[in-house]
Design goal:
Blueprint (H helix, E strand, L loop, with lengths): L1 H34 E4 L2 E4 L2 E5 L14 E5 L12 E10 L2 E14 L4 E4 L15 E10 L2 H9 L1 H6 L1
Antiparallel strand pairs: 1-2, 3-4, 4-8, 5-6, 5-8, 6-7
């Protein structure tokens, strides 16, 4: 009889912990949804935006699958060589144009053009301008969380959550 009571009590505690964790997640998500703004196909929360790393071009700074945070409220005049920036890239293909974000380090700049390079990749073939820059890496990343967030954004992850 004593074993059954202990087992039932343990399941109650586990159930309560899971319930309160879900409540915290829902409240956090609600606050983010209320106070965030959507710009350039990204959601910004008080100037901070999270992005999932899709390649290994910046390895040793962060890795594929990491969740990185960028500051979208920055001074375009204050960009320096060595800063890690996120910028918009548009490529023309035979099927039309493809736009995506790239996060690389500033290799050099000449006052107008900015030359970038991934820490684990060759220099980018095309320079950008300060107007292409949408954010500066804050130095904060969460190892592997980007993969989890991408799963939650999928239809299967959304359904399961």
């Amino acid at each position: 009889m004593e074993v059954t009571k202990k087992g039932t009590r343990a399941w109650k505690i586990v159930g309560n912990v899971v319930f309160w964790v879900l409540i915290v997640v829902v409240v956090f998500y609600s606050v983010v949804a209320l106070f965030s703004k959507k710009e350039e196909n990204m959601t910004s929360f008080f100037g901070l935006t999270s992005l999932t790393v899709q390649s290994d071009s910046m390895e040793d700074t962060f890795y594929k699958g990491d969740l990185i945070f960028i500051n979208t409220e920055f001074d375009k005049e204050a960009l320096n060589v060595g800063d890690v920036i996120t910028f918009s890239v548009t490529e023309i293909t035979t099927d039309g144009s493809i736009s995506y974000y790239n996060t690389h380090r500033i290799l050099s700049e000449d006052g107008v053009l900015i030359y970038t390079k991934g820490d684990n990749a060759p220099a980018d073939s095309s320079p950008i301008t300060a107007n292409d820059v949408i954010g500066v890496y804050t130095g904060v990343h969460l190892r592997g969380m980007g993969t989890f967030i991408d799963f939650l954004k999928s239809s299967t992850g959304f359904f399961l959550f």
